[in-house]
Amino acid sequence: MAGLVSEENQKGTAGRSGPESGDELQTPVLRISQLDALELDSALEQLVWTQFSQCFQNCRPGLLTPLEPELRALLQLLLWRFTLFSSSATVGQSLLSLHYHNTFSSSPRYRPLSRRQKLGLALLTAGPRWLKERSHSLLLCLGLNTGGPVSERDSGLLQKGLRSCLNLISCIAQLASLINFLVFLRKGCHPVLAERIVGAQAVFTKPNVVRDITYQYMNRELLWHGFAEFLIFLLPLINTRKLKATVYSIVFGGGSADGEGGRDVHGVWKECGLCGEWPTMPHTVGCQHVFCYYCIKSHIIADACLTCPKCGAEAGQPEPVKIEVEMTGRQ
After folding, report:
1. Can you tell me the distance from the alpha carbon of 254 to that of 138, in angstroms, rounded to the nearest whole number?
2. Strands 200-204 and 283-284: what pairing?
3. If phi over 0 gives left and psi between -120 and 50 gives alpha, with beta otherwise, what is residue 145?
4. What are the two backbone dihedrals, phi and then psi, of residue 203, each rounded to the nearest 5 degrees?
5. Are 111 and 118 in contact (CB under 8 A)?
6. How far is it, in rounded angstroms, from Cα 200 to Cα 100?
7. How many C-beta atoms lie closer than 10 Å to residue 203's C-beta?
């Protein structure tokens, strides 16, 4: 009798402390945790595709482009086979201590997804993306172009009708995804429409698991975002050309411009002060440097307080350069 009591106590303890206990379903999963899991899964898929494409970087360019939708779907199915199919959790969910619960089950305790639900979730995730990328090619394969086996008029009508149907289905799917996301923000379940269709809900793998973020991390993020917003506001107000000319004059001395003036004037006029090429329709703005007409005119229109990028002098109205040429005959 004592053995039976102890055995029942062990079963009760296992039922309360195991991963399939009903206690873990009482703690709701934060919305941000579910969205972070989706972002981690997307980043993993992109990382796998990048590593896979690098294997063919020494091959002919564009080798994978014709089969890119199929290869992406195949890699996604491989990830599904070794993550979701094996443990009812994606990689992102595993990192956040989450996994899928079967909401179609009438039991209050945790129930993993069935094989049919896992297969349906994989098809609803990879299938629409592949169909969207291959819709045009599928229409061409059906002979709906002008050179198809059917007449040109019938081909045009059929192609237009199918394209309209595909566009309508795409719009309905996007609208349904938007409505599902709004419901997710309201209730906190099923951030993706495919999860709601197959009855998959993210729950914690262990009871009483909470999202722990230290204040040090939050303060660092807030400080960085504030500093980035300050730079975005400040940088457009800085005249980089004038600042560059000022630093140049300080570093190399104020007499650098005069030193250049002592050189041959024609040597200074051999290149534009903005583009560095031979000046086209050379113009000057009051200093000794010469600019292409279109270069200096466009910069003056964009910046009313333009300064010479070479010497830092304030730019006036562009004036054409006049050069006196002396003709000397041979003796």
Report:
1. 70
2. unpaired
3. beta
4. -135, 165
5. no
6. 6
7. 21
Alpha carbons within 13 A on the beta-carbon side of 239: 17
Taking Cα atoms as reference points, which of 171, 174, 151, 173 lies closest to residue 163?
171
Q: Is 111 helix (H, G, I), strand (E, B) or coil?
A: coil
CA-based diameter of the chain, in Å?
136
Contact between residue 150 and residue 167 where contact means Cβ atoms under 8 Å apart: no
Supply 263's token pair.
């050189």
Q: What is the dihedral of CA 17, 21, 23, 25, to 10 degrees?
A: 140
Task: Determine how β-strand 98-102 pairs with β-strand 200-204.
Answer: antiparallel
Beta pairing class for 283-284 and 98-102: unpaired
Per residue in 192-244, pLDDT tens? Answer: 999 999 999 988 887 665 555 556 767 787 888 888 888 888 888 877 767 77
Residue 96 CA to residue 36 CA, distance in Å, equals 8
The C-alpha atoms of residue 172 and residue 162 are separated, in whole angstroms, by 15
Query: How many Å apart are CA 208 and CA 21, to the nearest integer?
Result: 12
Structure tokens at 26: 């009482």
Strand, helix or coil for residue 307: strand
Summarize pLDDT for 100-159 with one digit per residue, the tens: 988 888 777 888 899 999 999 989 988 888 888 887 777 666 654 444 444 556 666 776
CA 164/CA 168 separation, integer angstroms: 6
Residue type, 67: L
Q: What's the pTM value of the predicted model, to 2 decimals?
A: 0.54
Name the token pair of 307.
């300064």
